[in-house]
Design a protein that fits this description.
The structure is a single chain. By secondary structure, this protein is an alpha/beta fold. It has a single domain, classed as 4-Layer Sandwich (Metallo-beta-lactamase, Chain A). It contains ten helices and 14 strands. Helix 9 crosses helix 10. It binds zinc ion (ZN). Zinc ion binds next to helix 3.
């Protein structure tokens, strides 16, 4: 009798695991803005049960990586932009143009930060790319005025040091909070799907102390490792040092940390970077490469 109960329990656990949606985080671009690192610029994708549902950033080279994964543009639910620097957005026009040749008919929401004197709002940014009469690629204006197969729907995320829910639909929700990337409006995101939580720092220096709250207990924290130990000046005003990444990871205690946005100044310094992070965080740390896939359990 006891054996039967144990077997039933094991069977139900196996069935529960089998019915749980499979969530995979894939790195499309693990590099920064440089050429010569052999990497696409910042871009990530979340797969749910074999469908590519969420894009986070889409920098130069991301469209080729997207193609290599065999993801379908028609499956995307939304695009999240951490900020509007070129290395996070440059392949968006390529994605939109490619969508013309697909079966996509659902609107595609694009979220990104508010604007300031240094940067347009995300809505204005998209208009300056594609809007009829004013866009650099105004011939794609169909995707904004509603006369195309679907609409691109940009939404600005207001500055906030408090975590805000910005999206919830079809089993995916997204929380956002402002992060400090020098003078550039920037947002960190937490994507929640099937009980899993994946957090993206984007580029930031840690000064607002918001990421540690957003990443609290997350399954994965993707942190940008753009500067080495001891960085100073402009680089440290824009980016987290390994020490800062370690402090944030130590405070938030995610199950794992993936280091991405790797640059020539940090590549080759992985053991030094890891030693800095290990001062505060004992969990799993991985250095990302393009097309890496992480099964989020
Ligand atoms: Zn960047």
């Amino acid at each position: 009798m006891k054996k039967c109960l144990i077997l039933l329990l094991l069977l139900s656990l196996v069935l529960a695991a089998a019915s749980k949606p499979k969530v995979v985080l894939q790195v499309l671009g693990s590099g920064g803005p440089e050429m010569g690192d052999g990497r696409a610029s910042s871009a990530y994708m979340i797969w749910v049960d074999g469908k590519a549902r969420v894009l986070v950033d889409f920098g130069g080279g991301a469209s080729l990586r997207f193609e290599q994964t065999k993801a379908k543009i028609a499956d995307l639910d939304l695009v999240l932009l951490t900020h509007l620097h070129i290395d996070h957005t440059a392949d968006l026009p390529a994605l939109l143009k490619a969508s013309y040749f697909t079966s996509r008919t659902r609107d595609l929401p694009i979220f990104g930060p508010y604007g300031n004197r240094a940067m347009p709002t995300t809505e204005v940014f998209i208009e300056r790319l594609f809007k009829n009469d004013v866009g650099a690629w105004q011939y794609m204006g169909d995707f904004l005025d509603g006369s195309g197969a679907f609409r691109l729907v940009p939404t600005d995320i207001a500055f906030s040091k408090e975590i805000k829910r910005i999206y919830a639909n079809r089993g995916i929700s997204v929380d956002a909070v402002s992060v400090h990337h020098g003078p550039i409006p920037a947002v960190a995101y937490r994507v929640n799907v099937a009980g899993r939580h994946i957090v993206f720092s984007g580029d930031m220096n840690g000064a607002y102390h918001t990421l540690e709250h957003l990443a609290k207990g997350a399954d994965v924290l993707v942190a940008h490792n753009a500067v080495p130990k001891g960085a100073s000046g402009v680089a440290s005003q824009l980016h987290m040092t390994p020490d800062t990444i370690g402090q944030i990871a130590g405070s938030a205690a995610p199950k794992s940390v993936i280091l991405s946005h790797r640059m020539l100044r940090t590549i080759g310094k992985e053991s030094e970077t890891l030693a800095e992070i290990r001062k505060y965080y004992k969990g799993k740390v991985t250095f990302a490469d393009d097309l890496d896939r992480y099964y989020v359990r």
